[in-house]
Amino acid sequence: MNDTRIYFDNNATTCMLPEVVEAINHAGRTAFANPGSQHSFGRDARRTLDDARETIARILNAEESEVVFTSGGTESINMAVQGLTAGRTGTIVATAGEHPATLRSYDRAAVHGLRSLHLKVDSDGLLVESELDGLPWNQLRLVSVILAHNETGVIQRTKRLSDLCEHHRVPLLIDAVQAVGKIPVDFAALKATALAFGAHKFHGPRGVGGLLIRRGVKLVPFMEGGHQENGRRAGTEAVPLIAGMAKALEVWHESAGHRQMMISEMRNQLQQRLLGECSPAIVHGYQAERLPNTLSIAFPGLSGEALLVNLHLAEVACSLGSTCASGSAEPAPALLAMGVPPDICLATVRLSLGILNTMDEVNDAANRIAEVVRRMRSSQNPTG
């Protein structure tokens, strides 16, 4: 029996590729021992761990010693924020609409005496660079920016920001969780102090990720109790998951250009059809460079929550452009920061594609979404 469901929620998580599953299983059989053990079994695990570290460092243009393995993007961000600000006073800065992992970490830092500032973004979600001119650079202790936005897919301009951080010797944290494994990411060229990523965003396993930390940077440990990861992250490394993450990134890297082109063509086809068949419709970040897979689109006059339910019934999996708080829908802060009216925020859904999708699915989904939108609008205006 064929599965008629269509999965367009790849920014939430992705399906592991067969090669990744095999890499995990192989490592589970051959590298099951503790990589810190000195016997031959432990050394087998250590070799697998070192090979994975080398692969990830090479693809992200980092040094092997700069790679720290974590449980995922959220831990990596928390680890960087807390590790780079512990015991310090002053000001920490983030762009408006950052991921909650960053915002909540900033809230915790504020409890310990750090002041938090947020930089404005324009209608496409791009940093308003004039904001940088008025910053109290001598008081800054950390600047954080999301490289590719999880909701809109907008790819942030970071060059001037990173140049200023480097000039003023202010640590720069880049949240690259949605970027790594989707677009080229060059740690050295970004001039970041730290860069976070998570495997399950690029067809790797859940429960594993990484933090790149520039060589020579001191980081107060986020987790205590062991010498692992050069004393920067205690806990026995999950070697099979790490091997799976390295394989997922390697598979992406081997066909990155082709994969980006294919996914972009599918996203653009979906976008074109929905704009043509569901008018009025609004694409967020339309004028900016975006991830090739992400389409954040609003259907004015409709409830995003109701639309999501109806799309579920139509067997199209996607997500909201808003977050839930206290049981009621609230406009997404990232969209509000772009100047999007609250009613348009609440009419937004996010469709995010992956390499396992096909153009046939795109056209099938476009038909289903257009039918749902027409039906919902017709029920709201039966005499129209």
Short summary:
With 384 residues, the protein is α/β, with parallel strands linked by helices. Helix content is 39%, strand content 16%.
- The secondary-structure class comes to alpha/beta
The strand order across the widest sheet is 2-8-7-6-5-3-4
Query: Rg, please?
Result: 22 Å
Strand residue content: 15-25%
Unreliable residue stretches: 322-328
Helix count?
12
- Helix and strand sequence: EHHEHEHEEHEHEEHHEEHEEEEHHEH
Instruction: Estimate the global geometry from the Cα principal axes.
Output: globular
CA-to-CA gap between the ends? 40 Å
Fraction in helix: 25-40%
Main β-sheet description? 7 strands, mixed
Could you characterize what this model shows?
The strands form 4 sheets. Strands 2-8-7-6-5-3-4 form a 7-stranded mixed beta sheet, with helices on both faces. Strands 9-10-15-12 form a 4-stranded antiparallel beta sheet, with helices on one face. The protein has a two-stranded parallel sheet with strand order 1-11. The radius of gyration is 22 Å and the shape is globular. It has 12 helices and 15 strands. Residues 322-328 have low confidence and may be disordered. α2 runs parallel beside α7 (239-254). It starts with 5 loop residues before the first strand and ends with a helix. The protein has helices spanning 18-30, 40-59, 73-85, 100-111, 159-168, 187-190, 239-254, 256-277, 304-313, 333-337, 342-345, 359-380; strands at residues 6-7, 67-70, 90-95, 114-119, 140-146, 172-175, 194-198, 209-213, 282-283, 294-298, 316-317, 319-320, 323-325, 328-330, 348-352. The chain has 384 residues and is α/β, with parallel strands linked by helices.
